[in-house]
Amino acid sequence: MSGLPVVGQKLDLKQYFAGVKPDLLDVEERIKRQAREFDPAILGYIEYALESKGKRIRPALVLLMARATGGIDTTPRAGHANLAVIVEMIHLATLVHDDIMDGATKRRGQPTAVAKWGAELSVLLGDCLFAHALKLCTHFEEVEINRAIADASREVCSGEILQTQRRFDLKLTIPEYLKIISMKTGALFRVSTELSAFINMEKGITEEQRQAARVYGDCLGLAYQIYDDCLDIAGTENSIGKTTGTDLEKGKLTLPLLHVLQQDLGAEKDAIAAMILHGNESDRQKLLQVVLERGGLKYSVRKIQTYLEEAVRALDLLPPGEFREALQGIPSALISHVGNLAK
Amino acid sequence: MSGLPVVGQKLDLKQYFAGVKPDLLDVEERIKRQAREFDPAILGYIEYALESKGKRIRPALVLLMARATGGIDTTPRAGHANLAVIVEMIHLATLVHDDIMDGATKRRGQPTAVAKWGAELSVLLGDCLFAHALKLCTHFEEVEINRAIADASREVCSGEILQTQRRFDLKLTIPEYLKIISMKTGALFRVSTELSAFINMEKGITEEQRQAARVYGDCLGLAYQIYDDCLDIAGTENSIGKTTGTDLEKGKLTLPLLHVLQQDLGAEKDAIAAMILHGNESDRQKLLQVVLERGGLKYSVRKIQTYLEEAVRALDLLPPGEFREALQGIPSALISHVGNLAK
């Protein structure tokens, strides 16, 4: 699929993670070490799933937030490193299951678990990663942390169920879409930043600041998901490094299209509905044109920017410094980056 | 598939559960109530999965063990009821995922989740149930309980991976088989009985008695799984109410057959291997004859009985009384019941 080459370059957040680079390496090491906790016979599968060359955004957010709220926990429990490992493992577990559902054969250039070993083993592999993550939670003395993580995990799965359920559903509203992505993507971002600040409450972080950390994660997660959904519509495979147009093909109605569907479409209404419900490749190309002409992408970019601005603002409550700057730099970079999408 | 009608009647354990009947009804009510904790849009799926007309053996074991070790926890946290709900939810989550892998269309006469809603939704549904069970764990103040449950969950999935991995593997040994079923079935039985006793340690249950409760659950779980595996070979659909012969068809090598494979098979060896690896329906019938002739079923029944005797013996360490009697009655009933299998 050719797509519309509106995105010129990939988003690179590495510069913002620079201040926690050694800590991220430590987390990476810890993630790899988890494989050894499993039976030797299944270690290979676990290692493969854990080594997925992801961006490790969630661990980076945990660590940056830790630094911005009083420092990384260096007690033997290593609270922040543990939290970083947990959120990444839950994320990886959901990716393994997502790939089964999407029938995806590659992720970041590597064969997916389902492509290598089939659906049966991959269902179990995801379950194992998930169970292990929840076991790591028990290193925390605070039941509150365990509860928040279990809750977030449940939200992620529930959000995915809602999404699956509402495929090809032309009645899906924008608030419903936002709720779904808040569950499936926002939840893990939220716990990453909120719990990171929570761990530092004994270092003087206030309840208000903890809430600010939560709002930051929430808004960033929402913006990130809408951005990803826009790329699927407006990106090209070359520019973003993965297959585009897959959402529409699978009946996932995302924000740019939902913005169009809520307009008065007059005579075009039935044709658009037909293209969504049983369109072929060329129909989907036409739909993208409709989305562009009717401002669906522009609207989505504005929405992304609004969330990102809220993320930046929320952190004004934290003590100023290098790490607050890095955290605020991420949404700021995204704000100007997504500007290109709407041009 | 016709099978061999060696099992005359179903095993009925209800009489042993009689002493905890009201408590089981309370747990049943609690299980149903969990559905309401989910988003209204997905409540229907959760309800369906939770209402599976299972035997609720694990909750019954939790409650009987509670009664046998000092009584059911009636503090607001309702430790035993909560534990019973958790182990059953984890069990149900694994059933939902198992049914996807087995392509099962019916379970206890009802369409499976995968038959009703497809694999995608069922993967997520299992995940949701699992995440929710682990959230319920956080009602316990004792991190030890959470850890044991997360550990058991991981063992269940790891055991299932090992099993999947070793399908059609003629080199699978009996100790390896026992390890797999100890993980995939023993683990949840073990935590059910051990943690139930653990909750009563403040009522005077000793570390030794806790271990005895663990051994009981472990042995009962192992015996139960071997029994189930034997039924798949020796039962008839009419007598046990589910499809038989499915293990062989899927390449799952279970104890009766493994006993044959470790014998000196001489000239028959290649023919037997061929029937296992790519046999048709009639080959599988022949294999069952070989298993019977070479004592595979008799051997398995002896193994079941050994485990069950160990389960009975372990509980001699508990204070005597009505509930210890009921707990010991379960393996005793199974011992005489499986006697029929080997005749």
Written overview of the protein:
2 copies of one chain form a homodimer. Chain A is mainly alpha-helical and 343 residues long. Chain A has 16 helices and 2 strands. Chain A has helices at 14-17, 21-34, 40-50, 57-68, 79-102, 113-137, 143-165, 174-199, 207-234, 237-240, 246-249, 255-261, 269-278, 281-293, 296-314, 322-342, and strands at 106-107, 110-111. In chain A, helix 5 runs antiparallel to helix 8 and helix 9 (207-234) packs antiparallel against helix 15. The model of chain A is unreliable at 1-8 (pLDDT under 50). At the A-B interface, helix 3, helix 5, helix 6 and helix 7 of A face helix 3, helix 5, helix 6 and helix 7 of B.
Q: Give the largest interface.
A: A-B, 42 and 42 residues
Mean pLDDT of chain A: 90
Largest sheet of chain A: 2 strands, antiparallel
Principal-axes geometry of chain A comes out as globular
**Span of the ends, CA to CA of chain A:** 21 Å
Provide the succession of SSEs of chain A: HHHHHEEHHHHHHHHHHH
DSSP helical segment count of chain A: 16
Can you count the beta strands of chain A?
A: 2
Residue stretches of chain A low in confidence (pLDDT < 50, at least 5 long) are: 1-8
* Secondary-structure class of chain A: mainly alpha
Oligomer: homodimer
- The amount of beta strand of chain A, in percent, is under 5%
